[in-house]
Design brief:
Distance between the termini: 11 Å
CATH topology of the largest domain: Aspartate Aminotransferase, domain 2
Shape: globular
Strand content: 5-15%
Largest sheet: 7 strands, mixed
CATH architecture of the largest domain: 3-Layer(aba) Sandwich
Structural class: alpha/beta
Helix content: 25-40%
Number of domains: 2
């Protein structure tokens, strides 16, 4: 049995933070999203594929800041490019800098649907903007969604403080359910502006799903048939599944796509990319602007990140490491005798626990992730993990071994 971690400083800072910030910190970083009392609450530093908490415990970081860390923490080549921009040119100005055009050209070269690009800051910015673009282009009102798309009114899961009229035109269908989508399109025929879907299915606290044969192709055909803008939410899959996103990997090109997370290895940038005739509604018909969307530090970081991803064949290596790791873990899970499921290979590994009518799976989940964090592997009970380039083969071997030990403990 692994020992409970020393977390005194984390707990002290958490108590202090609750007096300063509602809940101590925002949303998914609060302790109830992990295992309260077992997980660290404050990190001190990170480097490569590891993080260190404020009590000095070091972890293999397989949550990767919920996805932005594609290469590793504190990548010198990327950080040095950003520092150079600060020292030599600056980054927050009244009008744009040339780096905007350079990054846009690079995106257009890489992403199949990209003919024009708008840069934003967060995934929620981009997914919400995609809806505005689609509505302005089509003149229609409803958005059909599948997956998690952020915290804004139209799609937030928790409805407190949100007026019902702000999401009454948002409809939902389930991933890999073409019939459900078709029924919604028929029911609301002539009034649907866009369908937004994650090309990989990754609902929170549920197994990661790949598209069934014909699913993405079917979504593409249905949206064309009904004159609806198809949006791929590639915030998680973009620049991770392939340099052109999941759309290139699966060979299905949407009208618009949103990207973020991995595109700048942790720097705050996202974007909407898509067909020229649709994107051009932002010239006169629709509006988007922000004081900080044009800040160039994350653009510099993104351009350098994309350069490194391509130059060093980073995504091929991540896929190789991920496959080796996931093959091991799948066998461990199958042989564990524990009712759990392994999905998400090779990019987004996730162990979920099979539901039962008595709710025992909830206790099993808590026990497993308690054992895992005590072995210094940082994953999240309700969210899939990620593989980063700086995770060494030894790191991933250790993580697989920790998973095996943790499953054995709960099997006892």
């Amino acid at each position: 049995m692994a020992e409970h971690l020393k977390l005194d400083n984390s707990e002290r800072l958490y108590k202090e933070s609750q007096e300063l910030i509602p809940g101590g910190m925002m949303g998914i970083r609060r302790p109830y999203n992990f295992v309260p009392g077992e997980y660290p609450i404050f990190f001190e530093s990170a480097k490569g594929g590891k993080c260190t908490d404020v009590d000095g415990n070091e972890y293999i970081d397989m949550l990767c800041a919920y996805g932005p860390i594609i290469i590793g923490h504190r990548e010198e080549e990327i950080d040095n490019a950003v520092i150079q921009q600060i020292r030599e040119k600056g980054f927050c100005m009244s009008i744009v800098q040339e780096i905007q055009n350079k990054l846009a050209k690079r995106v257009i070269e890489l992403v199949p649907c990209a003919e024009k690009v708008v840069f934003t800051k967060t995934g929620s910015d981009s997914t919400t903007l995609s809806g505005r673009i689609a509505r302005a282009y089509t003149g229609k009102s409803k958005v059909i969604r599948c997956g998690y798309h952020g915290w804004h009114d139209w799609c937030v899961e928790t409805k407190g403080g949100v007026l019902p009229k702000n999401y009454e035109d948002t409809l939902e269908f389930k991933y890999n359910d073409l019939d459900g989508l078709e029924a919604l399109l028929e029911q609301h025929k002539g009034d649907v502006a866009s369908v937004i879907v994650t090309p990989l299915g990754h609902p929170n606290a549920h197994p990661v799903q790949r598209p069934k044969p014909g699913f993405l192709e079917g979504v593409r055909e249905l949206t064309k048939k009904h004159g609806v803008v198809l949006v791929f939410d590639e915030i998680r899959s973009g620049f991770r599944v392939s340099l052109g996103g999941a759309q290139k990997f699966f060979g299905v090109t949407p009208d618009l796509a949103t990207f973020g997370k991995a595109m700048a290895n942790g720097y705050e940038i996202s974007m909407v990319a898509g067909k020229k005739e649709i994107m051009d509604v932002l010239e006169h018909k629709a509006f988007v602007s922000s004081t900080y969307f044009n800040n160039t530090l994350p653009m510099v970081a993104s351009l350098k990140t994309l350069e490194i991803l391509e130059r060093d064949h980073i995504l091929d290596e991540i896929a190789r490491k991920g496959k080796v790791f996931c093959d091991k873990v799948r066998k461990i899970v199958e042989n564990s005798g524990v009712r759990c499921t392994f999905t998400g290979e090779p990019w987004m590994p996730y162990i979920t626990f099979d539901k039962d009518k008595d709710g025992i799976y909830k206790k099993t989940r808590v026990n497993f992730y308690t054992q895992l964090i005590r072995r210094k592997v940082f994953l999240q009970p309700y969210h899939h993990g990620y593989i980063a380039y700086r995770h060494t083969d030894a790191d991933l071997d250790y993580a697989a071994g920790a998973i095996e030990e943790s499953l054995k403990e709960i099997r006892k």
